[in-house]
Amino acid sequence: MQKLAIEGGTPLRGDVCISGAKNAALPMMCASLLTSDVLKLNNMPNLHDISTMRKLLEQIGVTISVQGDEMLLHGANVNKLEAPYDLVKTMRASILVLGPLVARFGEARVSLPGGCAIGSRPVDIHIRGLQAMGATVYIEHGYIHAQAKRLTGARILFDIVSVTSTENLMMAAVLADGVTILENAAREPEILDLAQCLNAMGAKIEGAGSHTITITGVERLHGTTHHIIPDRIESGTFLVAAAATGGNIVLHNTRTDILDAVSEKLTEAGAQIRSSHDTMHLHMPERPRSVNVRTAPYPAFPTDMQAQFMALNAIADNSAMIIETIFENRFMHVQELRRLGAKIDVEGNTAMIRGVDRLEGATVMATDLRASACLVIAGLVAQGKTTIERIYHLDRGYEHIETKLSQLGANITRTQ
Ligand code: EPZ
To answer: Which residue numbers are catalytic?
Structure first.
């Protein structure tokens, strides 16, 4: 089992290159199921979740090749309409093959994802949306079975804002007969990026990135080449790491206009941030000020940055409250931070963090993707050595994080 060993106390300094967005790449890979032409994706991140999605799509019959950060996907010979449990259980985003398979082939069998560390994360919204579009959907032996001669356009109102439900149903609707309207849709930048890719493939989607998305079904889609947007969560994670260590870094190949809620919180914490179109410069001249955070759907503060800000608040100058409104169990990193000396009390979905002058290195365990990032940040500021176990969680969403951090001066190594 691999671990990360970190000797804390060094401010991060220098330049770092941000990779393509995992949560844009995953649905876009599934869009290859919607056409028999070749889909070419540039700026692909090299992540474990991407490899898992590649394995799943190849099992379904998509031919995939990778050259550097370019991935070619060819869905001409799809011959198996199933996403098996052994793959779906490792990555919830596998559910994103459901909409495209039913849209193009009229049928799909996708294993229920099961829960995960951060909550039960049901898929009822995905299922109800397909039923609204005329699919027959039933659950049997832990699998979702969906069938439809041809999906028909429908008006679907989301009672909860859901990112992958919005993506799944948007992809289902592009080949449906008629117009589909998604009300109270998620507004994440990754959804707009997916819509732009689908429109380049011949889809007719309007309003992506707003609360109401209108999709007019077409007969078929063709291939295209699409450049994936930068990963705003990777960007935010490096900015917080620099702020926590009192550093001075420049992010390259990022996007400044999709990180406003995070930038504003970092400025409130005392960071000096200067941005141009694809670079962000953060300098942290003194100890961070404590900042209250409340997660909510985009464009509000992202839940995927909650754990990272808990690490920042752990060593800030006062007390702060973090309220997690999206997932019911996304404080798994609290008990690990306490092992490093953090003072945190949790009451339901609210954590109260009292900043301490310093954290002490210790051995801690990663529990989920963003909790791992929080522990890396805490290790970078703790005095002495921190060892992080189960770092496969980290590799799901961060490309060579120890290499990028070492280039910023961190004393961090991966060990067996
Ligand atoms: C996406 O997950 C992201 N994953 C998550 O990023 C992110 O944390 C989350 O959106 C929220 O922004 C990908 O894009 C691959 P949701 P998703 O559906 O779509 C409930 C990361 O770190 N819900 O927006 O699964 C659900 O339980 C990952 O990269 C239902 O009740 O999240 C949650 O409480 C972690 N029924 C809320 O909606 C459903 O059918 C929002 O979940 C679907 C969701």
So the answer is: 116
Residue 253 annotated in ligand binding = no
Give this prediction's pTM. 0.97
User: How does pLDDT run across 179-233, given as a tens digit for each residue?
Assistant: 999 999 999 999 999 999 999 999 999 999 999 999 999 999 999 999 999 999 9
22 assigned to a ligand binding site:
yes
Tokens matching residue 396 = 């799901």
Burial 196-231 (b: 16+ CB within 10 A, else e): bbbbebbbebebbbeeebbbebeeebebbebbbbbb
Ligand 1 centroid to residue 201 C-alpha, Å: 26
The β-bridge partners of 83 are: 110
CA 23 to ligand 1 centroid distance, Å: 11
Q: Could you tell me where the DSSP H helices lie in 174-217?
A: 189-200
3-state secondary structure at position 338: helix
Q: For residues 84 and 86, give the distance between their C-alpha atoms in angstroms, rounded to a whole number.
A: 6
Does the beta carbon of 331 sit less than 6 angstroms from any atom of ligand 1? no
